[in-house]
Design goal:
Length: 387
């Protein structure tokens, strides 16, 4: 739900009233006949972390609708993440939020929007479901052929749905995964506590070949991804943490994404000064998703890297700045450490911190974090020795 901020919700109220006056979809209040559902369309073209958080939702859908094929409208990376989990039968690739960022982008991407609808409508679906309640995608879904259209009324758009559900009253304190599963619960799906956790399958061959190529037998691999979608969410003190990790059995992989040169350069300078062994990886998105899996420990911001690493079962340190971990943190709590300072100014949706310094980061004690990382690395080393 993070893509629709409180300020945006206020702006959407009059839009929703106008749409409700123009559009009307007949509501359906009969229970879903699970056995007779043959085709399900899921609309969720979101970022990497959101795709990882969709895994439990897809798993529960698959378990409950045993006779149905599932088609996912998603961004390109989702196929790389989900392809070997056997949860999705067909992928329809869509650009995502960029298509809806203002009138200019809508006009610019109009052909792509029409083409996506055309591809979707090659099939008739029993159910189309949008698990976040985003009015932009509910409007988009309105033009797709499905007997039942299901979602939350989080940001409006009830006029496009046959089955409308209210968000839980405490949704601001619940996790996105829980919100999505709650929607499935309300249509009659059942699931266990264990079903709530995202999971991914590691490529063991890739790790073995990487260790052999770089002569890393007996070494621990620590990943660092200093980037995030917004600069305000990028923790700037990874170099200070590295300085306080006093061990030489570590090989560092620094992941570099688009427009992250400056952040990576700062880390490289520290690694070179300390004579640490490392490599910078700026591979394709597909390879990035795979290479995260070879790390023994990962340090990253509130970004897709943390969700990937958490789902792989890797010991993960996620540094939260302006966001609160409650609703968006990697859900795999056993192997994920949340580095966060609770401040009155959080959550913050600004692009730049209005204060003289960004306290949500500067108040994090780097020596204390480094000590915890060192302890985790020692445990990982012991586990490796035991086999």
């Amino acid at each position: 739900m993070e893509s629709v901020t409180p300020s945006k919700l206020k702006l959407l109220k009059p839009v929703n009233l106008l749409l409700s006056a123009v559009y009307h979809t007949e509501k359906i209040d009969t229970p879903i006949d699970f056995k007779n559902v043959k085709k399900i369309l899921v609309l969720d073209p979101t970022a990497i972390g959101d795709t990882v958080m969709l895994i439990p939702f897809l798993k529960v859908l698959k378990q409950n609708f045993t006779n149905a094929s599932i088609t996912l409208v998603c961004q390109k990376h989702a196929k790389f993440i989900l392809n070997n989990l056997s949860l999705v039968d067909d992928f329809i690739i869509f650009k995502g939020n960029d298509c809806f960022l203002g009138i200019k982008n809508i006009i610019k991407n109009l052909d792509h929007l029409k083409e996506t609808i055309k591809i979707v409508n090659k099939n008739e679906y029993d159910i189309a479901i949008e698990p976040r309640g985003d009015i932009r995608y509910l409007y988009f879904m309105h033009y797709m052929h499905a007997r039942r259209k299901i979602s939350y009324s989080y940001s409006g758009g009830e006029c496009f749905l046959t089955d409308v559900f209210n968000m839980p009253k405490n949704y601001k304190d619940t996790h996105i995964i829980e919100d999505k599963l709650n929607l499935l619960k309300m249509i009659g799906c059942s699931f266990s506590e264990a079903d709530k956790y995202p999971y991914m399958i590691k490529d063991s061959y890739l790790k073995d070949s990487f260790i052999k190529e770089h002569n890393l037998d007996g070494q621990l691999i620590v990943g660092i991804h200093p980037g995030a979608s917004k600069k305000i969410r990028q923790y700037p003190y990874y170099g200070d943490i590295i300085k306080n990790i006093d061990r030489y059995d570590v090989f560092y992989i620094v992941f570099k994404g688009y427009n992250e040169d400056e952040a990576v350069k700062k880390i490289e300078e520290v690694l070179k000064t300390l004579d640490k062994k490392y490599i910078v990886l700026s591979e394709s998105l597909e390879m990035y998703i795979k290479y995260v899996s070879i790390c023994d420990l990962m340090m990253c911001n509130d970004s897709g890297a943390g969700h990937l690493s958490g789902a792989y079962g890797i010991v993960t340190y996620v540094f939260f700045g302006p966001e609160r971990p409650a609703g968006v943190r990697p859900y795999n709590s056993e192997n994920v450490r949340y580095i966060n300072r609770d401040l009155e100014c959080k959550p913050c949706y600004k692009l730049e911190c209005p204060l003289k310094e960004q306290y949500c980061f500067t108040e994090i004690n780097t020596k204390s974090v480094a000590k915890k990382i060192d302890e985790d690395l020692s445990l990982l080393k012991e586990n490796k020795k035991r086999g």
